[in-house]
Write a structure and sequence with these properties.
The complex is a heterodimer of chains A (161) and B (153). Chain A is α+β, with helices and mostly antiparallel strands. Chain A has 4 helices and 5 strands; from the N terminus they run βααααββββ. In chain A, β4 (127-137) and β5 (143-154) form a beta hairpin. Chain A is elongated and about 60 Å long. A 5-stranded antiparallel beta sheet of chain B has the order 1-3-4-5-2, covered by helices on one side. The chains are: A alpha+beta (161), B alpha+beta (153).
Chain lengths: 161, 153
């Protein structure tokens, strides 16, 4: 992670892709979102979705995984260059999450994250809050989900408040 | 047949679901798969983070709340899913062994203008731990079928 002070609005990260199998969709739904249209092909066919589709929480959880793995790769590259790795704190929340289209079994979703806003934290000296618009796009080029996430990022030591 | 339709929800409706205990193994299992950050995976590493100790991934908390809502309400409702989430706030870390209770109320309800068979109910869900601390809030519009499609709303 770069320091908060080195992050710019508009910076974009391509996080990679994930293919959703029927097995994964049902496994996740069974644990966390056991609605019929996420669990059973026949019931899903009768629903307004028309076919088995992933829980929206599943599509977001995969975003999180890819974002963390992206950060690990970035940190490894920074370490290899001898650069300092800034700390990443927890997230206070997210907003404006939209599930635009169902993610069906067999769909591949490609995720990206673009810095939308940043501000120094008032309550936590030495930290800033970064907001990113995160998106998932299916293999047909349709945006399936979008939200504005946030997270604390360490400030450069000695940075002006 | 569903028990609950769009017409059953209006401001003043309240409900509570849970408690549901979340174990350390479960927290680490979710984090390993979906949010493999040290603050969600490793007690010692987590102690040196802003969380001050192991805390569940916020997405895990969302997922557990979702499961409570499906089991408690949505399975018996004419639910058509949610078009999104307006806002989630993670207020406190969920700790290993904590039990979550979800309390909900209806902020607003409106019939769809374009599709007479359905309506949208905006819920505020608040998740508490067993110490009575509010851990998370979630504001979510839920799409539900109408019992009486097309009737004046």
């Amino acid at each position: 992670m770069r320091y908060f002070d080195d992050i710019n609005v508009g910076d974009r990260m391509e996080l990679g892709s994930h293919s959703f199998t029927a097995e994964d969709i049902k496994l996740f739904a069974g644990q966390y979102d056991p609605q019929a249209f996420h669990l059973d092909e026949a019931a899903a066919a009768q629903s307004h979705f028309g076919a088995l589709c992933a829980s929206g929480w599943h599509t977001i959880a995969v975003w999180m995984r890819l974002r963390v793995l992206y950060g690990r790769r970035e940190d490894a590259e920074r370490a290899a260059r001898g650069e300092v790795i800034a700390k990443l704190g927890p997230s206070p929340g997210f907003r404006e999450l939209k599930w635009f289209k169902p993610v069906y079994a067999g769909d591949t979703v490609t995720y990206a994250s673009e810095i939308a806003e940043k501000r120094a934290s008032q309550s936590r000296p030495g930290w800033g809050l970064v907001f990113a618009r995160n998106t998932g796009t299916n293999q047909k080029g349709e945006v399936v989900m979008s939200f504005i996430g946030s997270g604390f990022v360490e400030r450069r030591p000695g940075a002006a408040p | 047949m569903p028990k609950f339709y769009f017409e059953d929800f209006s401001p003043g409706w309240v409900a509570e679901y849970g408690p549901r205990r979340v174990t350390r193994e479960e927290m680490i299992g979710f984090a390993a798969q979906y949010d493999p950050q040290p603050m969600h995976l490793d007690e010692e590493a987590a102690r040196h983070t802003m969380l001050g100790g192991l805390g569940a991934s916020g997405w895990h908390t969302c997922c557990i709340v979702m499961k409570l809502l499906v089991d408690g309400l949505l399975r018996d409702a004419a639910s058509m899913g949610a078009p999104g989430i307006d806002e989630v706030r993670w207020l406190k870390p969920l700790r290993p062994g904590d039990s979550l209770t979800v309390r909900g109320n209806v902020l607003s309800a409106r019939a769809s203008q374009s599709k007479p068979d359905r309506g949208f109910v905006s819920f505020l869900w608040e998740a508490y731990n067993d110490r009575g601390e509010k851990v998370m809030t979630l504001v979510c519009p839920q799409m539900l079928l109408r019992r009486d499609p097309g009737a004046a709303a």
